[in-house]
Design a protein that fits this description.
With 135 residues, the chain is an alpha+beta fold. The protein is built from 3 helices and 8 strands. The longest helix is centred in the C-terminal third of the chain and has 15 residues.
Length: 135
């Protein structure tokens, strides 16, 4: 299955447009905290190629208070330890909340998932993308 996250930042309008095709919802860092974004249903659709003629809507949100966006594939949250427990989004949120420069946050996420899993190799492919708005 092929999933996708689409984000378009318009600095002139001061907004971001999002659309998700079967992908994991990204983590956002705002002035007032860190949380996983949950776009409305009309901005989320199935993975690409699952069915013919799917349409994918978008949602717009203001950039005020918006600092960072971290997109990741299922391989991060689905990594399991020896007890079968998954790393999950809660642990990802905790790592992001520790703060620091974006490069270091991204490195810590990878290190945390590797340290949590039962072996240093990932069962699923992983991809991690982060960006930030500096003012």
């Amino acid at each position: 299955k092929v999933t996708a996250f689409y984000g378009l930042v318009d600095l002139t309008k001061g907004e971001i447009q999002l659309s998700i095709a079967g992908h994991v919802n990204p983590i956002a860092v705002f002035d007032d905290g860190v949380r996983q974004l949950v776009p409305p249903v009309h901005a989320c659709g199935p993975a690409l190629g699952i069915a013919e003629n799917n349409s994918y809507g978008t949602v717009s949100a203001p950039l005020s208070g918006f600092r960072r966006l971290i997109c990741f594939t299922e391989g991060f949250q689905n990594t399991s330890n020896l007890e079968g427990e998954q790393f999950g989004v809660t642990r990802m949120l905790e790592e992001v909340e520790r703060g620091g420069d974006l490069d270091r946050v991204m490195e810590r996420l990878v290190e945390a998932v590797k340290g949590f899993g039962e072996n240093p190799e990932f069962e699923n492919a992983i991809c991690l993308l982060g960006w930030e708005i500096t003012r």
